[in-house]
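Narrative of activities, Objective 1.

The group set out to show that a structural description can be obtained from nothing but a protein's sequence at a throughput compatible with the screening campaign. Below is one input-output pair from the validation batch, recorded exactly as produced.
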Amino acid sequence: MSTAAPRVVTLKIDNKDCGAREDQSILDVARENGIEIPTLCFLDGLTGWGACRLCLVELKGSPKLLPACTTRVAEGMQVVTDSPRLKKYRQTILEMLFAERNHVCSVCVSNGHCELQAMAQKCGVDHVHMPYRYPKLEVDSSNDLFRLDHNRCILCTRCVRVCDEIEGAHTWDVKGRGIEAAVITDLNMPWGESQSCTACGKCVQVCPTGALSQKGTAVAEMHKRRQFLPYLTHMRRSHT
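Output recorded for this entry:
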């Protein structure tokens, strides 16, 4: 039995008339129409998660700010993606990410190739107004090829989703809540002892910061390659 095609709706994004399928997110439609919305946790080829909250947008008639990556479009929507209010929210979110852990760009393998660093520059964050927590977090170097530095993790869960949705191993997960949350392998064992990890490196390639990196890389040497994601996602869908 065939299913009905998604209904086409019309909406406005930053006063631009847009047509979209009702199963699309605001972020999808904005990008199709050349409207940029900042993101860190979102990545083409993975399901939307809404963790970083940088893609928050204003919706006419709603007092709430909504995540563009997980909010579906609807007929007659009027969306604002850039305003003084949104700019302030995004700057605050980025400052909190920097203050929560230890992001020392000058000694990071992803310096100059880091999405958090680039997003801060784009959003005008040149200093942090809140006190740093300076937690003492471990670095897991037990894997033969890769390392995990919890000091640079922003809990975007890209590693969790790519391992589950693309690789099918589900090696990664998240333990704890709030400020105590952390990504873990298997049942919180050292990465090198994981029985499910295939050492494919996809988690390393999708990491937006220097939290996951390849051993042997020095400062500013860690380049991430994410081109495989759209292709693998397309191939996966074509076989379902």
